[in-house]
Amino acid sequence: MIGLSGNVPVYLACGVTDMRRGIDGLSGMVTAVMKEAPGSGAVFGFRGKRADRIKLLWWDGQGFCLFYKVLERGYFPWPTAKDGVAHLTQAQMSMLVEGIDWRRPAWTSAPERAG
Fold first, then answer.
1. What domain range includes position 66?
2. Cα(17)–Cα(35) distance, rounded to whole angstroms?
3. Is residue 109 part of a domain?
4. What is the pairing mode between strands 43-47 and 53-59?
5. Residue 112 placed within a domain
6. pTM score, whole prediction
7. DSSP E strand boundaries for the chain
8. In total, how many domains does the chain have?
9. SS3 category, 75
């Protein structure tokens, strides 16, 4: 993603979000539902009912950035809770954006010991 450092907090809104919402609607959800400050510099993620699209809201210090991604195939793995907030690491966020299941990453091959 553009401009994010390794220590940016990432929050996912559990459950389904109306993907017709724009910056104002999503920042209102951040305040009301997630109980966070939208302008804190954190990344806030939202997934629609179809599960093949996400929106990421981020304040870069000058204004809000809204990233929207639609997968050609598959779906974005999401927390199973109906409501609440999930916290992700930068590595988990990278996997999420690529459509990889960040909840259960698996080695492509088992690590081998040298020696």
1. 10-97
2. 16
3. no
4. antiparallel
5. no
6. 0.84
7. 10-13, 43-47, 53-59, 64-70, 85-88
8. 1
9. coil
